[in-house]
Amino acid sequence: MITVYLNRRVGDDERRESLFEGNFYLYTDVNGADALADHAKDLIGQAFEGLDPERAQYEMDVDEFIKRVEPLKREFTNGQRTKELCQQFATDLGVDPERTYFDIPRLRVIPADQFLTAGVSYNYKAHRDMWYGHPQQLVNYWTPVFPVVGDNVMSMFTDYFDKPVKNASNQYDYDEWVSKHRSAAAANTTSDTRPHPVPLEEFESRGEIRIAGDSGDIFMFSSNHLHASAPNTSGVTRFSYDLRTINLDDVRADKGPRNVDSGATGTTLGDFLRVSDLAPLQPEEFRAEVAATV
Ligand SMILES: [Fe+2]
């Protein structure tokens, strides 16, 4: 059984335990999340200059769309203002700022009607974030920039939280992805030739759910959930951002949900920044401990 908790004010330690069992947490009216959504809106507005960004895809060709979205995504992910707002976001949710680290957030831009489903607007096939080299202890926060509907969000295949799916993650190495493939996103305009860790079998989910919030609402879940971009049939481009955190104590104690099917190598942990002061997580802070637990 999976429970969805709304605006539940519990300690972060207790909440992570619950997330690792597969439960979901939804939060509304969190200042940091609203501020990050507003920041994204500002950048999106600049990128589409006077056009309605949710419908701008109908005013331009794919090349022009990519030309605007690629720098938009880069600025959102790497900008200093974004990092500061992530600190506020995480602190407002009650995480321990000294023990919690976040991965710089991603802005997702998913046009409607198959306008662009590759590269900068890659429509994620079903996956767990662990298939991409993330640690089992990862917590994901998914937030719409503009209000979303079931036809343009993510599908969560809740019945697969603890059930394996045959997949290509054992071909995936995070370091190789960074050095060879990540920067090639904008070059993928019709199909995505990058070696994404995709499912290698058809699976049928009887537990698919879609959660659609308003601007700034937070959908919090364990990244061990199998999830995918839903085909966008809403008629508007979906803009959302996602943030991920880990608690260092969870990593050191090897907590988190059971790894049911990920064979990915490498780790994203070296990308994570401490909530309190943006200090990068040093490899020796987690590698030695991980080795000691093997
Ligand atoms: Fe994901």
Structural topology:
Layout (H helix, E strand, L loop, with lengths): L3 E3 L5 H9 L3 E4 L3 H18 L13 H17 L1 H13 L7 E11 L28 E6 L9 E4 L16 H8 L26 E2 L8 E5 L3 E4 L8 E10 H5 L20 E2 L8 H11 L1
Parallel strand pairs: 1-2
Antiparallel strand pairs: 2-7, 3-9, 3-10, 4-7, 4-9, 5-6, 5-8
The chain binds fe (ii) ion.
TL;DR?
It comes from Pseudonocardia sediminis. The protein is built from 7 helices and 10 strands.
Provide a descriptive summary of the structure in words.
- This is Phytanoyl-CoA dioxygenase PhyH.
- The protein has 294 residues and is α+β, with helices and mostly antiparallel strands.
- It has a single domain, classed as Jelly Rolls.
- It has helices at 12-20, 31-48, 62-78, 80-92, 174-181, 248-252, 283-293, and strands at residues 4-6, 24-27, 100-110, 139-144, 154-157, 208-209, 218-222, 226-229, 238-247, 273-274.
- The strands form two sheets. Strands 1-2-7-4-9-3-10 form a seven-stranded mixed β-sheet.
- Strand 1 (4-6), helix 1 (12-20) and strand 2 form a beta-alpha-beta unit.
- Helix 2 packs antiparallel against helix 3 (62-78).
- It is globular and about 50 Å long.
- The two termini are 31 Å apart.
- It binds fe (ii) ion.
- Fe (ii) ion (FE2) binds at residues 127, 129, 227.
